[in-house]
Amino acid sequence: AQSVTQLDSQVPVFEEAPVELRCNYSSSVSVYLFWYVQYPNQGLQLLLKYLSGSTLVKGINGFEAEFNKSQTSFHLRKPSVHISDTAEYFCAVRGFRAAGNKLTFGGGTRVLVKP
Amino acid sequence: DTEVTQTPKHLVMGMTNKKSLKCEQHMGHRAMYWYKQKAKKPPELMFVYSYEKLSINESVPSRFSPECPNSSLLNLHLHALQPEDSALYLCASSQATGNTGELFFGEGSRLTVL
């Protein structure tokens, strides 16, 4: 079984400032890691994923995340945010052999970008 | 642009009504999913279909009845729902279960039960 903790439920940030969203997980097996974004009144869109290889993963819209196996973390960063980045961000994990590709989501982090 | 299409976008129904949510994808994916998302909460898995067969039911009440008529379509039939079933229902698809492919989500159907 897996669990995911997103340490910040809300992150206010000024436009053009950097942002970091923290995600820690626990699992008894190896996992795949994902970050999804949900804009208001929309579904989830994949930002990036870590499957294997380089621990620094680049995604869409200028986001990147770094997998740290020793700290069981997968923090998401963006060097300069835009108003349009206002959204809910979900970190998710899936065990290598998870039945049905079952994703375990964190509680979400709401990012509010202020002008 | 999402390639998973859900209809209707909004649905209001009474507790005695029967309605259905529909989901369609044309990416050739062989796994499809229903998730339920309450306000300010993460999505919760309800059902997984793999190659048109139900592979996971996360102990969902029988008032929710999924159906997968073919590899492109997924329905969720609703009957005798309760107000607490009001939520955003998300459909997703992936290439198959048991691989590294990510899930592609639709925009959801927002359900209100009166």
Give the SSE layout.
The complex is a heterodimer of chains A (115) and B (114).
Chain A: E1 2-6, E2 10-14, E3 19-21, E4 23-27, E5 31-38, E6 44-50, E7 56-58, E8 64-68, E9 73-78, E10 87-95, E11 104-105, E12 109-114
Chain B: E1 4-7, E2 10-13, E3 18-25, E4 31-37, E5 44-50, E6 53-57, E7 64-70, E8 73-79, E9 87-94, E10 104-105, E11 109-113
Parallel strand pairs in B: 2-11
Antiparallel strand pairs in B: 1-3, 3-8, 4-5, 4-9, 5-6, 7-8, 9-10, 9-11
Describe the structure in your own words:
The complex is a heterodimer of chains A (115) and B (114). Chain A is an all-beta fold. Chain A has strands at residues 2-6, 10-14, 19-21, 23-27, 31-38, 44-50, 56-58, 64-68, 73-78, 87-95, 104-105, 109-114. In chain A, strands 2, 5, 6, 10, 11 and 12 form a six-stranded mixed beta sheet that branches. Chain A has a four-stranded antiparallel beta sheet with strand order 3-9-8-7, with no helix packed on it. In chain A, strands 1-4 form a two-stranded antiparallel sheet. The N and C termini of chain A lie far apart (41 Å). The model of chain A has no long low-confidence stretch (mean pLDDT 93). By secondary structure, chain B is mainly beta. Helix content of chain B is 0%, strand content 56%. Chain B is built from no helices and eleven strands. Chain B has strands at residues 4-7, 10-13, 18-25, 31-37, 44-50, 53-57, 64-70, 73-79, 87-94, 104-105, 109-113. In chain B, the strands form two sheets. In chain B, strands 2, 4, 5, 6, 9, 10 and 11 form a seven-stranded mixed beta sheet that branches. In chain B, strand 5 and strand 6 (53-57) form a beta hairpin.
